[in-house]
Prior knowledge:
- The protein is an alpha/beta fold.
- It has 2 domains: 2-112 and 307-359, Rossmann fold (3-Layer(aba) Sandwich); 132-305, Rossmann fold (3-Layer(aba) Sandwich), CATH 3.40.50.
- The chain has 13 helices and 15 strands.
- Strands 3-2-1-4-5-6-14-15 form an 8-stranded mixed β-sheet, with helices on both faces. Strands 9-8-7-10-11-13-12 form a 7-stranded mixed β-sheet, sandwiched between helices.
- α10 packs across α11.
- The radius of gyration is 21 Å and the shape is globular.
Amino acid sequence: MYIGVPKETKEGERRVALTPAGVHLLTGQGAGHTVLVQAGAGLASGMEDDEYEAAGARIVTADQAWGDAEMVVKVKEPLPGEYQYLRPDMILFTYLHLASSRELATAVRSSGVTAIGYETVETDAGDLPLLAPMSEVAGRLAAQTGAHCLTAHEGGRGILLGGVPGVPPADVVVVGCGIVGMNAAKIAMGMGAQVTILDINHDRLRYLDDVMRGRAITWYSTPYDVARAVRFADLVIGAVLLPGARAPKLLTRQMVQSMRTGAVIVDVAIDQGGCVETIRPTSHSEPTYLQDGVVHYAVPNIPARVPRTSTFALSSVTVPYIRKVADLGLEAAAHEDVAIRRGINTANGRFVHPAVQEVFEGSEGQ
């Protein structure tokens, strides 16, 4: 199979879909696939074109990476300038997050492309293996970013996350205790903050209470308790995920208005529309805005801040799935592996993922 790796075009995006090691696994060891890497695609992650060539890739133009490929693998969703490349005989394998954008969802569906979302590849155990490594990165960066935004020069309250002897630490509230939330809590506690975690999964709360040895406060999440927790928070990290679906707005405008001036919200759920009513996407060049006296951070591709770490982490989990699709063809791969089958978002001009169907079942139709 011909596999294309275009250079990412999203603002601030510095990751690349495959490492040279990933290319070698697809072109060598009896695989025999052809990998077309756009010139310069890996430079921002510290990977030179000659490394890709040595691993077996062909260095090509953007038009060739898209046009000559049977399957295109990316990091982020296609942007409007890339819609022209989408076609019915192509497999697109990337983070899609279709629920957050009707324009994107319509363009992908209308093109006829078969689109597989990394974020919706799901095992029988409910694990999201292709989302997990970026969730780990985003969660850890969320705590670090929140600490930075709390400084006075960034518009924050001027609070050190861990405090100092005689001065209390910051109060950090994490809404959602999946992979993002757990990693955010771990780093925030490591920096010395007082951490409160809210979730509706009792088993998950028990697990976190155990592994964190009672150092974090765990609350069962209700609107009343979320409102009570965020009112006095210095930093709120939104870490809510419903696979394939739009994130619920758990933090209302009224809750945000109740927060103290200079408090910070980092909404990691922004990829799926965000879990805060006052949130809107920002960018790496302009990452924050002030509303109701609260600093809002909502960059959709947080892991791009550490592209080398993120690229290696992502490629290590995606390559086995990419190779299975390339080796067997999508139909056979989806029949053999239920996780791949669940990952398909669009096919033959239709939405096929249940959560995506539910989001767009209105005027867009099926």
